Amino acid sequence: MSESIHTVEQLESLLSTPTEDVIDGLRRLEGDILFLGVGGKMGPSLARMAKRAFEVARVKRQVFGVSRFSSADAATKLEADGIKTIICDLLDEEQLNRLPEAPNVVFLAGMKFGSNGNEPLTWAMNSYLPALVCRKFRRSRIVALSTGNVYGMVPTSGKGSKESDAPAPVGEYAMSCLGRERIFEYFSRELEIPVALIRLNYACDLRYGVLVDLAQRVWTNELVDLSMGHFNTIWQADANIMTLLSFLHATCPPRVLNVTGQKVLSVREVCERFGRLMNRDPKFSGDSVSTAFLSDAQQAFELFRPPRVDAEELIHWVADWIMHDRPTLGKPTHFESRDGKF
């Protein structure tokens, strides 16, 4: 990997570069891929990685990207990369049912930020929409993005929640995400739809992520709240790899997989590391609590290999990106929330 990443173009290229495993996996995957909610943070690079893998594998497959596309520029960029974009309000059943059939569907749609105070839309997007999607794509294989927030908080001294642990969601956002999973599970069983549920904990692509939130606070001398004192994170390209390869492990009933980094990271230690890299003295508030939302992704590592980019390299990249005032999305993760309100 590069010692630093200097431009958005370089970043986008790294995020969407398929590995040999992805190329081989998608070569063996029959049919096109349709990405629902492609306009979000993870969708563009994920769709581009699939398209690039098909091209390298020399198989004729179409990649569709579906979104409301509030930014026309986002659709234009995807089209330039060979992805067929479709404007669609997924909650509108007539629009949803006009979408082309695809043997492989990635469900990325959902609502987190702004869910506090807008609970009806949160439940509609996270729990009702999956039912519409399952009926529409009952003959497809589906990989659906979920979240580690469906687990309860666990001791920071351990490795995190395992897929076999019982869910214990905190707050309506996490509850609605568990609702998403249960709906996919119901229709997977009823309609015999192969499904993989990806419980993702904090992808990072330098323009957003927990590390970006912390680096910005250290750089601008803001207080860092220690109440959520530990977290997981994963380089988004590694999350993309695991997500695409999950098609090969979709089952009925659904296969659940935690996707995150290998280490439990300390907020204080990470900020102190940023401080040394940025020549700043981090300022903290509050006390670290001995529990946090953490996931153990060992199953995913055994299936797909561990992440290629470790936390230390990612911290260096993020520090350099923030210090040089490169673009960010302006979408904080609010990972520090302990009451489940986002």
Average pLDDT: 94
Question: Topology as H/E string?
Answer: HHEHEHEHEHEEHEEHEEEHEEHEEHH
Largest sheet, if any? 7 strands, parallel
What would CATH call the architecture of the domain at 8-203 and 236-261 and 294-308?
3-Layer(aba) Sandwich
Under CATH at level 1, the class of the domain at 8-203 and 236-261 and 294-308 stands as Alpha Beta
Number of separate helices? 12
Description:
The protein is globular. The longest helix has 21 residues, at 171-191. The chain has twelve helices and 15 strands. Strands 3-2-1-4-5-7-12 form a seven-stranded parallel beta sheet, sandwiched between helices. Strands 6-15 form a two-stranded antiparallel ribbon. The chain has a two-stranded parallel ribbon with strand order 8-11. The chain has a domain at 8-203 and 236-261 and 294-308: Rossmann fold (3-Layer(aba) Sandwich), CATH 3.40.50. Helix 8 crosses helix 12 (311-323). It is α/β, with parallel strands linked by helices and 342 residues long.
Features:
single chain; alpha/beta; 15 strands; 7-stranded parallel beta sheet; Rossmann fold; 342 residues; 12 helices
